[in-house]
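It is worth pausing here to work through a concrete case rather than discussing structure prediction in the abstract. The textbook approach is simple: state the sequence, then state the predicted structure, then interpret. We follow exactly that order.
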Amino acid sequence: MPKYLVFFITTIVQVWGQRDFIGSKCTLHILSVLPYPKDTPPYNTDYSDGPDIVPAGYLAAEMINNRSDILKDYYLELIEGHDGCGNIKSTPVENLLVQNIFYSGKNIVGIAGPRCYTSAAVAGLITAKDGIALVNVHTSSLFKLGNKNLYPYSFGATPSIERFVEAYVALIKLNKWKHVGILYQDDAGAYSVFESLNSKLSQMSGYVMSFSSVITESYLPLDSLQASSARAIIMISASSNLATMLMCIAFTKGAVFPQYQWTFLYNEPAEIVDIAFEYGGTPFNCSRTNLLQALENSILISVGFEPHSGDWNKTGISGLTYPQYKQEYARAIERYNNGFYGPPVRIANTTLWGNPFHDAIWILALALNATDTRLKEYNKSLCDFTYGQPSMTLMIQEEISRLDFLGVGGRIVYSNFSKFTPDYSAE
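Step two, the predicted structure:
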């Protein structure tokens, strides 16, 4: 981390002290860290669905503020922040956090939403620094964020990628796939999965990784793959377009089931349509029927952002069933587009990424509520929250570790707090 950031942290914290009140209620601010469109500085390069996601957070805050049993002495308010996800030429996340924590005059008690790997990691490191100590509930699946020595106050609102690796290893053992090939996209998240999977395979007697390669739209090494002994192939974190191109080439070259068993890990869902392109000087043309044949008997291991079907009609923590929540989320999108929460960045649409963000707000609110109960024993409250005194943050951290509730993305359970490695699982 740049030295100037540490300097800011150690000096500005001494002058913090302003509090906001609405009526008799102390206002607690949660800073959202989400990616916004490219025409919204700082320009991002990967994701831009913040406007689609943030209304789900506003909806959660509205629900909590209308409850008499959760934070009844407080008013919860969301502050929108643009993290410039994927921007490697500047430090938008650092700037966003420093500006809002130290200069906004707001009582920020938690951070919600970082979904891009770089943003979640940077936010986790900054919030762990002496003089800040803020809980950060991210929506990234990067399993390295579970390292509590580096990210002591970071919690996930989505399953860790490590869960995906465990699922694929279980498939390998169940089907006795002795020779495995791994193709992974050229990004930090996909490479971290590759590293984890490679490490686990190296510890499994009788199982080998026969082939591995990064893939891009200009490099799809099907010939080298076929020349290897690998017959069970996993494609990690490839974009829908990249996966479609690869499967078209695989269909043309006969590298499909039953000769090969394809598994797709954490791929974006895509509409299967006709495709025509040129690769390596060779034209490829696949119909939708061809692609469906190529994908026959393939396996998809992906994030479940919705409850299991058996939980859809159960009342969750919000007091709504999942279908009822979806209706309310759509109404929140409409309010956002009409400027109810402020001038909209662009016309928003519902997205499944709204579910973990909605749950992230509930995670923070429930933990804050339980912390407030404990603080009253010492004649204190959440209004006494200050940076540089991590005792209250440690309480919030402990309360998050005890959570077990049905959210809109599934059941949220943290475990192993005694080992300082809390994790999230969607049942």
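Step three, interpretation. The chain has a mean pLDDT of 82. The chain has twelve helices and 16 strands.
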